[in-house]
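Morning run. Coffee first, then this:
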Amino acid sequence: MNDILNKKSTLGVKTVDQKPRNTTILRIVSGDTDLPLKKAGDFVVEKSAGDMVVTFFAGEKLNADSYRAIGGRIAGWLKTAAPETAWLELADVAEDAEKASLIEGLLLGSFEFDRYKKDAPEKKESVLYLDQAYHLLLEERRIVCDAVNMARDWAHEPASVINPETLAERSQLLAHEYGLKCTVLDEQALAEMGAGSIVAVGQGSQTPSRMILLEYPGTKKAKPVVLVGKAITFDSGGYSIKPADSMVGMKYDKCGAMAVLGTLRAAAALKYETPIIGVICAAENMLSAQSYRPDDILRSLSGLTIEVISTDAEGRLVLADGLTYAQQHYEPAALIDLATLTGGCVVAYGHVRAGVLSNDSDLFNALFASGEKTWERIWRLPHDDDYAELIKSTDADIKNSGGRWGSPVTGGIFLKQFVKEDVPWAHFDIAGVADSEKASAYAVPGATGFGVRLLLDWMKGL
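And here it is:
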């Protein structure tokens, strides 16, 4: 269980009362400096009174991510240089927020996914020490980053390991460990309640759909925040089959749900006041004689009928039933869904920002502020009613694809049909930021865990 819930790091970060003897000293500078440091991440190694001193450059022009990035660079250096111990001086890091970001960078930058590498070398763990004054800050950031790293770790797992059934089992382990209530609705329960959309997406797979419900009661009586996550554990495209190259990486089509699970884990460990519900919509979109087809008409849990234009527009189908269930069984103070929904969002925003479609400006503005602070940045998509014309169906209430034009918007507008007007709602299309082919300062190639830190920051203020 520990291996499933806790990804072992190659870097230990601890606090002590005083600097250990015979240790490597790490320092951080920023702005103008006399040292030969030009760009963020550069470092110099010097000797001082017999000690090795490594000075890292955070950059000349700093932003909200600069110290998180340099923390990741330091973690990378420690993995490569592997000193037995190191001492990080934070005297030149003035703001508490910067220190928190730096610690996040250290903990996030130490993540690796090498579980299946037979020849992965045994790595010696370096221990990085901070002053005891930062103990509480370190432990808080550790809880958050462990949750992000779990979300990354699970997202990296292939469909041969994580499918809707095994994801339900993992969610139950997570719930047991963190005091959450977990309920799993199988394909029979979903069919009997009328959740025809999520059932249809999974009916071509040997591992049928699951809706996984996780409940954190909070420490105060209040309406819950409900988080709905898309967990397509593998997406072949169904009969609207993807090209072979486009199927590679489809294990990451579950990243929205991984962010929801990570958020619940950390919120429970940090004892957040606000009750939180997680609704995980899990399915595997495969081809078989039992698969759903283009032209099929599905009856969703809401009662709306949906004409299937593309079986590769499956994420919105599972989310439609998840959003409906959330409103039928809970009374959300806010309803947020996260999904790797459209390639069009990657075209629009690249790998920098997630697109967010929301019916509530106050909710969006609060989420936007948390995104800027955590560097999990978002941008608002339009939600004009005119876009609904593109998903009108001749033979059903709506259709699941409005075509190529404005696809991130029409995907969100489709989901909007399943949200009551008086429920504050935001849809995160994280297709461009959920995973990356390139490493960043504090993330290896692959899943990023996007959304966990943003949501935790936003909910902390509720």
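The two ends are 32 Å apart (CA to CA). Good start to the day.
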